[in-house]
Structures are given as structure tokens and as C-alpha cells.
Write a structure and sequence with these properties.
By secondary structure, the protein is an alpha/beta fold. The chain has 15 helices and 14 strands. Strands 4-10-9-8-7-5-6 form a seven-stranded mixed beta sheet, with helices on both faces. A four-stranded mixed beta sheet has the order 1-2-3-13. Helix 12 packs parallel to helix 15. The longest helix is centred in the N-terminal third of the chain and has 16 residues. The radius of gyration is 21 Å and the shape is globular. The structure holds pyridoxal-5'-phosphate (PLP). Pyridoxal-5'-phosphate binds next to helix 4. One of its GO terms (biological process) is protoporphyrinogen IX biosynthetic process.
Length: 412
């Protein structure tokens, strides 16, 4: 019988580190998955785990949801790649623009990383300015401009600055701390060559780290005053915090938005969108180049449309998430050494006496303790992201039974 240990040994001879993405390289070896359905993932050994990683965010309806599956299956019958436009792109674009008051037009790409890469290029092309500002610990995908003090796998492995990123290029990316409007004001007032400020409105890749009251409004005001484009990276928060993501929840209108993850119903997707005058700079309408073989992929479009329809038809899932993560919070004993942070279906136990407000504070977490708790949870049948610095998620498939189990794990 196949087992995870042997599969990983073989994978290491073929795939660097044995994996296709670094966060998956769980020590001593990751479990290999045979199948997944609803809230559960089943390993090749036949172990069933409650999944609170959910593909690192996209699967808000759980695994293999029948509605998404039906949409993909029906599109399969008609073919899955045409290299020419389809009605499906118009349909999903209409939905996404309607859901986000800040988005008049958008471009579909295949991943969140491509979306932020293109949005940054667009901001430079539109403003004619060269530098960007990001948040320390903010993660925007694995590309050169943003692999600087990045969260997610980059933090886990202690290599925020990747080898191969040219120092000359990295010098065009500046950093500020999250929840520090004064720091942003100071930076922008000293530099007149900043094209954009890119930020996860709720930090999801070292978090969740929540914005202080008024922080996002201050960020909007400061960037506008300095003619700096505000890019909300809502690849995690889009459709996760509700329809319209963080920008609708907090009532802020960014200039550009990047989306991904949930928007594609669990198939690979990214998109960036914003004000018409900015988006019309994108090729072939304008001079900022973007292209991709799989942009607007029909299967992804079909899955994304099905996801979008479902979320609109079931608005009750969002308040339900809030109730459910409160149940987990309430199960944690008051003597616990850490802090539980939650926002809707995003949650995390931080091994630190207070909730972190930025990257520096997040790094103070006791990662050794976290690892112990994570292992205990896994042996108790719960799969969470292995890093202290990745958000846990719930899906609408996590029912009462799973909540009881989750509460038991957290009560320990
Ligand atoms: C996941 C993520 C990305 C990268 O998306 P990929 O599809 O993995 O390239 C970008 N930004 C944020 C906030 C993310 O969480």
C-alpha cells in the first residue's frame, strides 16, 4: 500500500524539497491526500481529517461542493480552452464589478501573484512613478517586487528576501508597519516617487491581523493626499469577509483591487481591477502589457460564476461563520497562554499573550509551542496550516459535529 512517507521520499528526488509550494513541506513528511469532500480531507493511509486549511483559502464551501462540481462538469462537455473570448468572462466580470464599488473594469489572470504583479506594473505605468510601498509581513505572491519581508511561506522559512531578487530592484519596494498611519505619512511625505501602496486590508498571511479602528480610512486619506494609488490585495479577504470583501466591510474605496482564491471557485484564478481610467491603460486598450494563455480560463470562469451565484443565494453563511468561530473562541480556557483572533471565518490561535498588531509583534509568537499544539491537533484529527503565520479557515461545510470536535481540540 502507498504511504505518505515513501511518496515524500520519491517526491524529493523529483521536486525540490519534495513539494510544489514550500508551505506544503511539513516535517518530517507531509501527508498525501487521496480525496476530499465537504469539511474532510482523506489521506492515502485512509485517515480522515477536518480541514481548516482549505487549500489556503479558496474553498469557502468546502471540498468538492456539488454546485461547483456541476458547473465544472457541464463546462467540460463544451471544452476547456479556446484562446478566444467567451461569454463566461463577461458573466463573471459583471458579477465581480457589481460586488465591488471600486471596480469598474478588470482583467482575469491565473493566480493571485500574477494579479499583484500586474497591478503594480499598472500603477507604475499609470502614475509614471517607480517605487512601491508594501506592509512588513504582507504577502502578495511569489514575485520579485513583493518578496521583501513577505509573510506566508517566506516567513515560515526565514527567508523573506529570496536569493535571485536583484538588490537594485528590491530597492524600489519600501516597507511600513501595519497599523502605523504615521509611518506611512512620513514615508510618503519624504518621497515623491511612490506609485502605489499595496496592502492586505486584513493581514492573512501572518494573521489574521486586524486593522485598528480608522486605520484603513487613514491609509485611504494619506495615499490620496500624496497621489499614491491604493491597492487592496483582497486575494484572501475577497468573498471571505463577505460579498465585496474588506473594502465593503470597512467602507473604503481603493484605486485598484486584486482578487483570487475564492473568486475562482477553487480553480486557479487571479484578477485585478479598479477605476476605468486606470484599467484602460491595460493592453490592448493601453500601453501596460498583460497577457496569459490561461487568462479567463473557461473552467475557472464556470466555477467562479457558480461560486458567486451560490454566495449571493446564501448570504446567511457569513453571520453563521461569525457564530461558529465564536464557539471556538469560547472553548478556549482562560488560563491559555495565547490569544485567539477571529474575523468571520478567518481565525488563529497566536502563541503570544496579546493579539499581534503588526509583523514585529507576530514574530514574537512562540513557534515551538505552536508546533506542539499543531501536532496535537493533527493527531486529534484536525488539519490546520502548519505555520503559526497562516490563517485558519472555516467553510460552510463545517457542520455542528465538526464544531464540537474543533472546540474539543481548542479546549485542550
Ligand atoms: C495567496 C495570496 C496571494 C498569491 O496568490 P497565488 O494564487 O498563490 O499566486 C497574493 N496575495 C494574498 C493576500 C494571498 O493571500
Amino acid at each position: 500500500m502507498v504511504n505518505s512517507k515513501e511518496l515524500f521520499a520519491e517526491a524529493q528526488t523529483l521536486l525540490p524539497g519534495g513539494v510544489s509550494s514550500p508551505v506544503r513541506a511539513i516535517k518530517p513528511y507531509p501527508f498525501y491526500v487521496k480525496s476530499a469532500k465537504g469539511a474532510f480531507i482523506t489521506t492515502v493511509e485512509g485517515t480522515q481529517l477536518i480541514d481548516c486549511c482549505l487549500g489556503y483559502g479558496p474553498l469557502i464551501l468546502g471540498h468538492a461542493h456539488p454546485v461547483i462540481k456541476a458547473a465544472i462538469t457541464s463546462q467540460l462537455e463544451n471544452g476547456w480552452l479556446f484562446g478566444t473570448p467567451t461569454e463566461l468572462e463577461i458573466d463573471l466580470a459583471k458579477r465581480v464589478t457589481a460586488d465591488h464599488p471600486s471596480i469598474d473594469m478588470l482583467r482575469f489572470v491565473s493566480t493571485g501573484a500574477e494579479a499583484t504583479m500586474a497591478a503594480i506594473r499598472l500603477a507604475r505605468g499609470f502614475t509614471g512613478k517607480s517605487d512601491i510601498v508594501k506592509v512588513e509581513g504582507g504577502f502578495h505572491g511569489a514575485h520579485d517586487a513583493v518578496l521583501i519581508a513577505a509573510g506566508s511561506g517566506a516567513t515560515t522559512h526565514g527567508t523573506p528576501d529570496s536569493a535571485g531578487v536583484l538588490p537594485d530592484f528590491a530597492a524600489h519596494t519600501r516597507q511600513v508597519a501595519f497599523n502605523d498611519p504615521e509611518g506611512l505619512e512620513e514615508l510618503l511625505s519624504k518621497n515623491d516617487n511612490i506609485a502605489a501602496f499595496i496592502i492586505e486590508p486584513v493581514m492573512g498571511n501572518i494573521g489574521p491581523i486586524l486593522p485598528d479602528d480608522g486605520y484603513l480610512a487613514a491609509v485611504r486619506e494619506i495615499t490620496a493626499a500624496h497621489d499614491v494609488l491604493l491597492i487592496f490585495d483582497e486575494v484572501i479577504t475577497g468573498y471571505r469577509l463577505g460579498i465585496g470583501g474588506a473594502q465593503v466591510k470597512y467602507g473604503i474605496k481603493p484605486d485598484l483591487t486584486t482578487l483570487g482564491k475564492i473568486t475562482g471557485g477553487g480553480l486557479p484564478i487571479g484578477l485585478f481591477g479598479g477605476r476605468r481610467e486606470i484599467m484602460e491603460m491595460i493592453s490592448p486598450a493601453g500601453p501596460v502589457y498583460n497577457a496569459g494563455t490561461f487568462n479567463g480560463n473557461p473552467l475557472t470562469m464556470a466555477a467562479g460564476i457558480a461560486m458567486n451565484k451560490y454566495l449571493h443565494q446564501h448570504p446567511e453563511i457569513y453571520p453563521k461563520f461569525d457564530e461558529r468561530t465564536r464557539i471556538i473562541e469560547e472553548s478556549i480556557p482562560s488560563s491559555s497562554p495565547g490569544t485567539f483572533v477571529r474575523l468571520g471565518s478567518m481565525f488563529k490561535y497566536f502563541c503570544r499573550p496579546e493579539a499581534p498588531r503588526n509583523y514585529t509583534e507576530a514574530k514574537e509568537c512562540d513557534t515551538v509551542l505552536y508546533r506542539k499544539l499543531w501536532e496535537k491537533a493533527l493527531s486529534g484529527g484536525l488539519f490546520m496550516p502548519p505555520s503559526q503565520f497562516e490563517t485558519n479557515f472555516l467553510s460552510s461545510a463545517h457542520g455542528d459535529g465538526e464544531m464540537v470536535k474543533l472546540s474539543e481540540v481548542y479546549a485542550q
